[in-house]
Amino acid sequence: MIAPPYQEDRSVLRDALFKALSDGTRRALLEYLVREGEQSVHALTAISGVSQPMVSRHLGKLKQARLVTARRAGRETYYTARAKGLAPVVQWMAVYGALWSQRFSALEGLGDGE
Amino acid sequence: MIAPPYQEDRSVLRDALFKALSDGTRRALLEYLVREGEQSVHALTAISGVSQPMVSRHLGKLKQARLVTARRAGRETYYTARAKGLAPVVQWMAVYGALWSQRFSALEGLGDGE
DNA sequence: GTATTGCATAATCAAAAGGTTATGAATAGG
DNA sequence: CCTATTCATAACCTTTTGATTATGCAATAC
């Protein structure tokens, strides 16, 4: 049986996402990909300040969190920032950030299953 | 000389914020504070699944990230979710989430699916 | 007064995470 | 074919981090 998007899968992804974003080097890599578009590991290593294996590992975590995608071309691998990757975080923020300031009014109408 | 809000201070706070949010137990504590409002350490310990010292330490990190405030009342300490605490993360997302969506929106659209 | 409750901190530990160098597998180029 | 490039993985080390129990200090209760 093929798995539908279980609640648990969602929370696992969300956790991987928050963890992926918690490291400054990873955020820098992601920011660079956003600004400059698709980049090879070689190019990312040049601007990262850490070793190439470390860049590969960081990219692996970003990929696992679905924040980037990888494209193999010959001996090079090109990574691209993934447009919708931050959506789960945005969703979380919508509930625990934005609604938060207007807690009393907003929660009444939502019935978020306390 | 009193320090104005230096760039470095900003990035330090932002880093503390992302790190604070990277742990599931801390997020659960924060979520509970958002939903239920001000709570004592005792009450938070009861729902957290970890020991009281651990709750205190998690709350300390949330406080350092400016996501909660503490109010001492007698021998109890009441913690409250801080409304504007997530602002730096929202700002970051505005740049590296929205900008990024814009770059690719023509190709991918904005839905939350695959 | 003494006992108890609520919280923070210290001491300690195991596991996770970030870093490195070394290695190996493909691909490209001479 | 031989060499160089690109990348991922392995082995290893150090620091950080999440967790525990033990302790100490205030404030409340008796």
UniProtKB/TrEMBL annotation, chains A, B:
Ranges for domain HTH arsR-type: 6-101
UniProt keyword list: DNA-binding, Transcription, Transcription regulation
Gene Ontology molecular-function annotations: DNA binding; DNA-binding transcription factor activity
This protein's record includes keyword Ligase: no
SUPFAM superfamilies reported in the protein's UniProt record: Winged helix' DNA-binding domain
InterPro entries: ArsR-like_HTH, HTH_ArsR_DNA-bd_dom, HTH_MetalResp_TranReg, WH-like_DNA-bd_sf, WH_DNA-bd_sf
UniProt-listed Gene3D superfamilies: Winged helix-like DNA-binding domain superfamily/Winged helix DNA-binding domain
SMART domains: HTH_ARSR (SM00418)
Thylakoid found in the keyword field: no
UniProt name for this protein: Transcriptional regulator, ArsR family
Species this protein is from: Sphingobium wenxiniae (strain DSM 21828 / CGMCC 1.7748 / JZ-1)
Lineage: Bacteria, Pseudomonadati, Pseudomonadota, Alphaproteobacteria, Sphingomonadales
